[in-house]
Design brief:
By secondary structure, the chain is mostly beta strands. Helix content is 9%, strand content 46%. The protein has 1 helix and 9 strands. A hairpin with a 2-residue loop joins β8 (121-130) and β9 (133-144).
């Protein structure tokens, strides 16, 4: 019995991810990478006065004409919008819109973690939207240091 319990626990920990899918409705999410964050981390450490790069690999389930990026910092269940210099996810991210259903897409964006940001725990909600629907939605637990 103990062997069975340990085996299940080990398998669960191998499949652990540092992010959760919060409603990717129009795609299948294959891979998420955040610079400086390991797959099995409980939270990502975001160092102030550095840049963080996020990479997403996903396959749209329908043709996508355009994509908008929305990022929120969720603190105590309150989403705070993070202003982006370029919210058009089809520009400077490696994506070439329109995206075709069934074809793998690779998105990459780099953002500064400003020195002025407070040292707090935050859930980063990252969304790629088409016509107000989530193509990709992930929630990343993070700590700003």
């Amino acid at each position: 019995m103990l062997f069975y319990f340990i085996t299940v626990l080990l398998l669960a920990s191998v499949q652990a991810k540092f992010y959760t899918d919060c409603g990717s409705k129009l795609s299948t999410l294959q891979k998420v990478d955040v610079s400086g964050c390991t797959d099995n981390a409980k939270e990502c450490i975001l160092k102030r006065n550095t840049n963080v790069t996020i990479s997403l690999e996903f396959t749209p389930t329908k043709d996508i004409k355009n994509l908008e990026t929305e990022v929120h910092g969720v603190i105590m269940n309150l989403p705070v919008p993070f202003p982006l210099p370029q919210p058009d996810a089809c520009k400077d991210t490696g994506l070439s819109c329109p995206l075709k259903a069934g074809e793998v897409a690779n998105y990459k964006s780099t953002l500064p973690v400003l020195k002025s940001y407070p040292k707090v725990k935050v859930d980063v909600k990252w969304e790629l939207k088409f016509d107000e629907e989530d193509v990709v939605c992930i929630l990343i637990p993070a700590k700003i240091n």
